[in-house]
């Protein structure tokens, strides 16, 4: 059994009521529940965490190897475009990760088109709403050797 860490960055705690035309109507609890069920069905464990605080996300990334995490799926939220520190933490732990965005960041404001994470990530899923998490976890599970 492998552990996958699902990290949600700032403002994602407001999903379901925050700009639903952009981010959809699913709440973070909805997304986490479906993700947990998907990973459990494959015989693995999912750790779901959200924070608006950059240092907390960094602490969780740094603790991941000691917790036995094999893969990270991360939606860095606004930190995508600003956080060299979170990027450095992901590089330091050297765990494979997949970057997820609910909206199509390439079709939004110019500042959202740059990610500090994409060049380190196994892959990036953007613009497919909450389905992006399911697709990222499918890829993570296959990477871990499960056909699910």
General description of the model:
Helix content is 34%, strand content 19%. It is globular, with a radius of gyration of 14 Å. It has a domain at 88-109 and 119-147. Helix 2 (28-41) packs parallel to helix 5 and helix 3 runs parallel beside helix 4 (84-93). It has 148 residues and is α/β, with parallel strands linked by helices. It has a 5-stranded parallel beta sheet, sandwiched between helices. Helix 4 links the parallel strand 3 and strand 4.
Give the neighbour order of strands across the main sheet: 2-1-3-4-5
Structural class: alpha/beta
Succession of helices and strands: EHHEHEHEEH
Instruction: Report low-confidence residues grouped into runs of 5 or more.
Output: none
Number of strands: 5
> What general outline do the C-alpha atoms trace?
globular
In DSSP terms (H or I, runs of 4 or more residues), the helix count works out at 5
The overall pLDDT, averaged over residues, is 92
Helix content: 25-40%
Radius of gyration: 14 Å
- Strand proportion, as a percent range, falls in 15-25%
Question: CA-to-CA gap between the ends?
Answer: 14 Å
Largest sheet: 5 strands, parallel
């Amino acid at each position: 059994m492998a552990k996958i860490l699902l990290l949600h960055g700032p403002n994602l705690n407001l999903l379901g009521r925050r700009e639903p035309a952009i981010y959809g109507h699913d709440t973070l609890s909805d997304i986490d529940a479906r993700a947990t069920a998907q990973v459990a069905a494959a015989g693995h464990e999912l750790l779901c965490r959200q924070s608006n605080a950059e240092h907390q996300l960094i602490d969780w990334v740094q603790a991941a190897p000691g917790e036995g995490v094999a893969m990270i799926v991360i939606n860095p939220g606004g930190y995508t475009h600003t956080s060299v520190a979170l990027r450095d933490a992901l590089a330091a732990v050297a765990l494979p990760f997949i970057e997820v965005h609910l909206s199509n960041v390439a079709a939004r404001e110019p500042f959202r088109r740059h990610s500090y994470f994409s060049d380190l990530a196994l892959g990036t899923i953007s613009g497919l709403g909450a389905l992006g998490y399911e697709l990222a976890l499918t890829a993570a599970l296959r990477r871990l050797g499960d056909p699910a």
